[in-house]
Amino acid sequence: MFGFLSSKPIVLFSGIATASGAAILTKEYFQGTKFKDPIRADGKVVIVTGANTGIGKETARELASRGAHVYMACRDMKRCNEARDDIMLDTKNSNVYCKKCDLASFESIKNFVKEFKAAEKNLDILINNAGVMRCPRKLTKEGIEMQIGVNHFGHFLLTTLLLDLLKKSAPSRIVNVSSLAHAKGKIKIDDLNSEKHYDPAEAYNQSKLANILFTRGLAKRLEDTQVTVNALHPGIVTTELGRHMSIYSSFLGKLFVQPILWPFMKTESSGAQTTLYVALSPELDKTTGKYFSDCELKQPVDEALDEKIIEWLWKVSEKWVKLDKIPSAS
Ligand SMILES: *[C@@H]1O[C@H](CO)[C@@H](O)[C@H](O)[C@H]1NC(C)=O
Ligand SMILES: *[C@@H]1O[C@H](CO)[C@@H](O)[C@H](O)[C@H]1NC(C)=O
User: Fold this and answer.
1) How far is Cα 144 from Cα 150, in angstroms, rounded to an integer?
2) Distance, CA of 326 to CA of 317 (rounded, Å)
3) Which of 12, 14, 161, 179 is paired with 290 by a 20 to 30 Å CA distance?
4) CA 210 to ligand 1: nearest atom
5) DSSP 47
6) What is the average per-residue pLDDT within 196-211?
7) Burial profile 185-197: b = 16 or more Cβ within 10 angstroms, e = fewer
């Protein structure tokens, strides 16, 4: 008798079910490859920068669940402690530590390294994960444009100050989280600091290309040390990284754009898979200076292989972080 009433809701309901079923299937398809090797990391000492949220947090969680001693290097200690509590509860690993490290301040980075070295004699894996994405123009403590400042210079200094421990702990690994955005990046030789012109996406892309150039520059310098360094693209991930992207954070974005993009975005834990693969896989014991995406070796763009730019950026970086004034740098 009320059949005419129920038919429409049923059609609507099955329409929604089909659409969400398709979205879930699509999402699984686009999640990419999982790192399936159950390899343990018991007792390995690991640093993950930017570990309080997003892929960094999932990377820290996975490593903790495999038995590593994980140092979460973060700017915001309150959020770091919350994330650590969550990871400890989840993994039952009590060797998870928060240490303050603001990558937008050379002083904070040096303090972090000092404290870390007082606590640990080894470092097996350094994961340079923290990143700033497409923010309005801001400067680091030292006056460097924020995106290249944190994504590149901060990690350059951190890595350099930890090289002695990494060498002592060899075989050890440095993992640099870059992005596919490197492909559109240009190193602005005459305006590296974006003083003449600032475009958030351009500065972000530049900083991600810098990550890959540095990975190669460092790999060359670390030949014969059994310290490997590789870069990777984690996939587009639904994290807070996108919080500066206007479509994503606007009200309309939340209503319309996020649901449409959702099937194609990686979740945080799937975004961590390539990082885990590059950090742990025994297949990669001897692999260095390479670039990965979706747990596979990929070719970066030609500009990332340009020796002249690699060396130019290296020299500028040494100068800007004033390496010659840091006694512990070797
Ligand atoms: C990646 O690699 C080198 C280590 O070479 C480091 O100096 C550079 O700043 C790192 N960048 C990041 C965050 O990936
Ligand atoms: C930055 O990279 C993204 C992703 O590859 C690309 O869509 C965008 O056009 C690039 N922007 C600039 C200004 O280079």
Assistant:
1) 9
2) 14
3) 161
4) 11
5) E
6) 92
7) bebbeeebebeee
pLDDT, residue 260, reads 64
The residues carrying an active-site annotation are 204
Which is nearest to 172 in space by CA: 163, 160, 180?
163
How far is 296 from 285, CA to CA, in rounded Å?
15
Question: Are 309 and 187 within 8 A, CB to CB?
Answer: yes
What's the gap in Å between 148 CA and the centre of ligand 1?
Answer: 11
The two three-digit tokens of residue 180, written as one number: 């596919």
Angle (CA) 163-165-169 rounded to 5° is 115
Digit-coded pLDDT (tens) for 78-97: 999 999 999 999 999 999 99
Ligand nearest to the CA of 204: 2
Looking at the chain, the number of H-run helices and the number of E-run strands are 13, 8
* Highest averaged pLDDT of the listed ranges 36-40, 78-82, 128-132: 78-82
Task: State whether the beta carbon of 228 lies less than 6 angstroms from ligand 1.
Answer: no
Average pLDDT (153-164) is: 96
pTM: 0.81
- Cα–Cα dist 321/300, whole Å: 26
**Which helix (DSSP H) or strand (DSSP E) does residue 80 occupy?**
helix 77-91
Cα gap 23→18, rounded to integer Å: 8
Give CA separation, 14 vs 5, 178, 238, in Å: 15, 41, 27
**Amino acid letter at 25?**
L
Which residue has a Cα nearest atom 3 of ligand 2?
Answer: 181
- Please write the tens of the pLDDT for every residue from 132-142: 888 899 999 99
Shortest-distance ligand to the CA of residue 185: 2
